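tool_call: predict_structure(chain=1)
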Amino acid sequence: MVAKDPLMLVREIMTTDITTLREDEALLDATLIFARSGFRHIPIMNGPQLVGLVTERDVKHYTPSILSGIPAEEYNRLMETTPLSKIMTRNPTTIEPGKTVYEAAHMLYDRRIGCLPVVENGELKGIVTTTDLLNLLLQLMREKGLAPADTPET
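tool_result:
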């Protein structure tokens, strides 16, 4: 994964095995994906077009609290009928696969966001997250001898 070229590109570190949902799918669909996968970001599509992004934090924010006293039927109804279009971040910041990892890191840091969908010619190609960048940092530190000898591989 770690290239020798100092100008490492986004395509070299992006995650390409991504799960997407449609904007007309329900809050429950995203909740189940987050619970089962360990993902924290889901790109939202309208056909082939990226139209939004839903985060695990968004879902937690918009999910009614069971402790609020809301009846179970109402809770289930809200989870099953609230479309992701109501909670998603529209037109998320994206990056192209040919941009540098430095540019991606700079965008994530400056905008205080956790991921960048990777888009090329209007098509979603992958996603780069802060976790991807931390993994790269760990690899580089090991390669440079800047990690303890007993550090496990990731």
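agent: Residues 66 and 116 are 32 Å apart (CA to CA). Proceeding to next step.
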